[in-house]
Amino acid sequence: MLLSELPSSEYNPFYRTYIMALGDIDLIGGLKMGKTELLSLFEKIPEEKLDFAYAEGKWSLAEAIVHMIDTERIFQYRALCIARNDKTPLPGFDQDAYVPYSNASNRTKNDLFEEYRAVRSSTIALFSSFDEEAIKRTGTASGSKMSVRALGFIISGHQAHHIRIIKERYLS
Asked: Cα dihedral angle (165, 169, 170, 171), rounded to 10 degrees?
């Protein structure tokens, strides 16, 4: 499934920036490519840089990485619920409320690396398991219509967004 096949009616306009930044990628290929890209970036991050925040009040690099992992888990769960035809409206989440409880400052680079790898591998396996009907199924998340396939592209786009920020503001 290509991004060009995703109608904008299947997701909240808030996510358009993430989705449109991807180019016309394949859903599973994009998830795999993103995994390779972030794992490669991890290799370039010195352990001592994990506590660095590029400005007062901004997340540390470790917190930004945990945020990506947490967000992927939440969006993966949303995709699972919608794909399984659960009609329960799914709540939003306050990303800023999660960070103080993430224990990011006590995590090692290797720990974050391994957790990310496990979560992304799980995401790829989940989305690979969906058939044509499930991938197009829609539900409600954060008060808006959302399709399973849109969630997959949002996962890729959200990560791409944070990779750009990490390169520009944390590792420059």
From this structure: 100
Q: Residue 158 — φ and ψ, nearest 5°?
A: -60, -45
Which residues fall within 8 angstroms of residue 45, CB to CB, at 6 or more apart?
A: 61, 109, 171
Q: What is the DSSP-derived secondary structure letter of residue 89?
A: P
Q: In the 8-state DSSP scheme, what is residue 48?
A: G
40 phi/psi in degrees, rounded to 5 = -65, -40
- How many Cβ atoms from other residues are within 10 Å of residue 29's Cβ? 12
Nearest to 90 by CA among 151, 134, 17, 162: 151
CA dihedral sign of residues 118, 119, 124, 128: positive
Does the model's pTM come out above 0.70? yes
- Please report, in tens digits, the pLDDT of each residue of the chain (172 residues total): 899 999 999 999 999 999 988 989 999 999 999 999 999 999 999 999 999 999 999 999 999 999 999 999 999 999 999 999 999 999 999 999 999 999 999 999 999 999 999 999 999 999 999 999 999 999 999 999 999 999 999 999 999 999 999 999 999 8
